[in-house]
Amino acid sequence: MKNSWSDAEAKKYIRKYARGGVNQDLALRVYSSRLLGGNPKLVLHGGGNTSVKTSMADAAGDMVDVLCVKGSGWDLGDIEPAGLPAVRLAPLRGLKKLKKLSDEDMVNAQRTSLLDSTSPNPSVETLLHAFLPHKFVDHTHSNAVLALTDQVEGEKICRDLYGNSMACVPYIMPGFALAREAARVFQRNPDVEGLILLKHGIFTFAATAKVAYGRMIKHVSAAERRLKQKRRKKVFPGAALPKKIAAVAEIAPILRGLVAEDLGGGEWQRMVMDFRSSPAVKAFVNGRDVARYAREGTATPDHVIRIKPKPLILAAPEAGDLAGFTKSAKKALGKYVRAYRAYFARNNSRFRPSKSELDPMPRVILVPGLGLFGLGASSKAASVAADLAEANVAVITAAEAMSAYKVIAERDIFDMEYWGLEQAKLGRGTEPPLARRVCVVPGGASGIGAATAREFRNMGAEVAVLDRDAAAAAMLAAEIGVLSVACDVTNRKSVDRAFNAVAARFGGVDILVSNAGAAWQGRIGEVDEETLKASFDLNFWGHQWAAQAATRIMLAQGTGGCLLFNTSKQAINPGPGFGPYGLPKAATLFLMRQYAVDHGRDGIRSNAVNADRVRSNLLTGEMIKSRSKARGVSQADYMAGNLLGLEVTVEDVAGAFVDLALSPKTTGAILTVDGGNIAAAPR
Ligand code: ZN
After folding, report:
1. Distance of CA 282 from the midpoint of ligand 1 (Å)
2. What is the model's pTM?
3. 136: closest CA among 55, 208, 64?
4. Strands (E), 130-289
5. What is the pLDDT of residues 456-489, one digit of tens each?
6. Centre of ligand 1 from the C-alpha of residue 648, in Å
7. How many angstroms separate the alpha carbon of residue 123 from the centre of ligand 1?
8. pLDDT per residue over 626-635, tens digit each?
9. Which of 91, 250, 377, 586 has minimal Cβ neighbours within 10 Å of its Cβ?
10. What is the DSSP annotation of 163-202?
């Protein structure tokens, strides 16, 4: 592993933070924390923590000795001084003389010793940092170190490798007891450069940030070298697989449907998925013994809160036999859920008062022949789960290449999964209204489509922007943090490809806002065939291809869905010369109702928004100018020519789509967004 320390960079940090009144110790602590956090082989998603002992002024201006230690909710990779709250050192060290300390009392002691009461909670490993004498203390869950210690002979391997340079601490759950034990081990080995926490991770320490970090890299590199020696060539003998494997886009919606919880009344608690595959992942999931090594437990205990103790392992999906796959996956999931409930009951019996059971659904699914899925309440959570699953694949592969992967006992894993201080890391905020739902917006790169993509994202949905203009779609997607896919809705194959890309990325589709459209004009008695056909291709067939592709995925999920069509006033009230536009739009309005009729019993709702006089690429500034002139009114009056006297904006239309998505008992309906036009024309 490369040592990335740079004296010049370190100086830059000191200078940069000095301007904000941050002392040199803390600036260097930020710098080397980021070096550690930027390396996924050392630190992933909130794993690992660092500290520095320094002095700071209290409210009275008196200097006090403090421990600046990673606060919960911060990642080392992009930590700031505010992410390393200062805790008075003396009261923390005073706790060392205690025999026992409850978690509540520990958290209270840490919080009441903060210099700034608004700071985040100091790390659950704060006392371990405080009880060690060194100025800089670094802690990671290095893959290489875990691969060595997570073996049957893990302790012996570590002792042989590190000799007197590192001391080994037996596995104890983080908190006061571990801090005390680590301090005890250190006192007996005061010359070591760090500690190996068996089945957990590694600490290094020193008087300077540079040396503490250098020691981390040195000892992790030693572990990496050890793993390369006497390594088995073929780690996982492969299982027999079907000749042709089904595609990710075919099986993801099936799995997403199976793990969704039926809340009744047409509502579902869904999950978002993130698929990963690589030669390493494939070798792992295709292994004959995958049920043994993959279900042993997580590489380091703190992964368990995000990926559960075990993944769900499925049979390889044979191409052309999705029904067979669905049946076997359903059975495997049922077994998984029963096993999780039994695991909870078995371990919960040790607790008074008892713990409350978490949902039993897997967060990682292994699919032989394909790869793995991470699952979560959002695409972010799903990708965190997938990252941790990939890290576990790396650790388990390296451990199995030497001997056999072995982690802590089930009861220790349970204690970690159900530890209040660990669960607190996940946060328990209320979810936005459209969280866990995947929304596809064809024609989403501009106008009403772009406003709709933004609004659905604001409401918590995972969004895919489809557009013929791939560059514009990509630009919007980057700006609002969603997926973009190039798609021409008049081409059925292009539509299917785009929806498959969405299913492969998020696991499925729940909401379609079929929005792509353009206006053609011509008096109906004179218009040429091409014009009419081109308009039908986009303004009718485009909607049908998108709705059919969405419905195919929704049926595979079996959790209902929501189809929304952007129709037009032309679909109901024909305007002179607008036949080529209005005719297919009228057909699309009927199409919306046909979906409502044919798929209501599948839980698929179908509705339309009928918007009028909205500034867009269908109603350009030029058109507004000429029409208002023709009617002898100002442009503003023309745009606000409705009962409310207000111009209708793309945001108003986007809001109407969201309202329909949030109306669980509405189907076959048209929501008009035109400022009101029900009055008869003045005589
Ligand atoms: Zn740790």
Report:
1. 28
2. 0.94
3. 208
4. 136-140, 166-169, 194-197, 201-206, 261-264, 267-269, 272-276
5. 999 999 999 999 999 999 999 999 999 999 999 9
6. 55
7. 10
8. 888 988 999 9
9. 91
10. TTSEEEE----TTHHHHHHHHHHHHHSTT-SEEEETTTEE
